[in-house]
């Protein structure tokens, strides 16, 4: 993970302020950076991590390949952040249970179905609201 640069292949994740609010350890070399500094990954690393996350979520391999092909930067960022937020909200539960359970907040679809249908930002905002108390 690195701070944001002018690299167009940078996938922004969370701000350091959000990490602090969520009690996620901020890397030592960024400890004195301001709360609005963004933490992220190069796109190539983000894609590798997203594939691992989707495997942890027990998404079928064919769905993983279809989803990650031509994925937009925002959706890629959202998947990575959604996984982190699930770990914060449900530290003792398997993320796959949440991802594959119907949810009234997504019209009784599963979280994965909402993400697949292009609603990763909606899922992220909902989980941010639950974990950070942000606007929903």
TrEMBL record:
This is Uncharacterized protein. It comes from the Bacteria. It comes from Zhongshania aliphaticivorans. The lineage of its organism: Bacteria, Pseudomonadati, Pseudomonadota, Gammaproteobacteria, Cellvibrionales.
């Amino acid at each position: 993970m690195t701070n944001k640069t002018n690299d167009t292949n940078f996938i922004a994740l969370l701000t350091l302020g959000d990490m602090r609010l969520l009690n996620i350890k901020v890397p030592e070399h960024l400890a004195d950076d301001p709360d609005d500094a963004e933490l992220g990954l190069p796109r190539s690393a983000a894609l590798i991590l997203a594939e691992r996350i989707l495997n942890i979520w027990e998404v079928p391999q064919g769905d993983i390949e279809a989803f990650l092909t031509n994925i937009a930067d925002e959706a890629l960022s959202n998947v990575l952040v959604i996984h982190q937020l699930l770990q914060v909200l449900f530290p003792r539960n398997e993320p796959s249970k949440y991802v594959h359970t119907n949810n009234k907040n997504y019209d009784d679809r599963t979280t994965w179905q909402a993400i697949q249908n292009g609603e990763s930002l909606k899922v992220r905002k909902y989980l941010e609201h639950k974990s950070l108390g942000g606007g929903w």
